[in-house]
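WP5 quarterly update. Target: TMEM175 family protein. Source organism: Paraflavisolibacter caeni. Length: 205 aa.
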Amino acid sequence: MENSQKETARIEAFSDGVFAIAITLLALELPFPHIEHIKGNAVLTKAFFDNWPAYLAFVLSFLSILIMWINHHALFNHIHKTSSGIMFANGFMLLLVAAVPYPTSLIAEYFNTPAENSAVAVYAGLFILINVAYNWLWYTASRKKQYLKPDVTPGTIHTIRKIYLLGFPPYVLSFVVAFFSAGLSLAICTLLWIYWAVVIRKYNH
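Structure tokens (predicted):
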């Protein structure tokens, strides 16, 4: 039991580090006006406001990673032991979390341009995969009761599984909608993050 708890703690610590790095990379991607192009206060102010898609993308992605981290923490509140399957599922999820800064930079560069649909489609597509990763992680951890804490009931297992499965169709919808309306696609993603932030309280302890 002591070894399994220690392994779980290492997984959580490693995961926390990946989440922290992903959030840090978001800030590093924020555009900085080049000094040679700035001739005065008015020009700098205009350059700042012209970069609003980058700030929007930063805030949305920061909130998404924050909510993913909270969800990850909630899942591991229920996981008592680990296995190679859980570690691989968790690793796949972290791979996708680490990739979030890339589509964020695409939105920052191309949102409100003729290429915004493709940029947002890549963004929404990544979150489809992230949803799959969370489903895989919880399925791998919950398919055998021995990996979970003794107080985790079958009802809790089913509820969490249902919550994550319900998120898949809306993410697919946001991906399809991205090709027609980039703004609406991002709005769907935002509503989903609100959904995750609200429902997590039902099974986080």
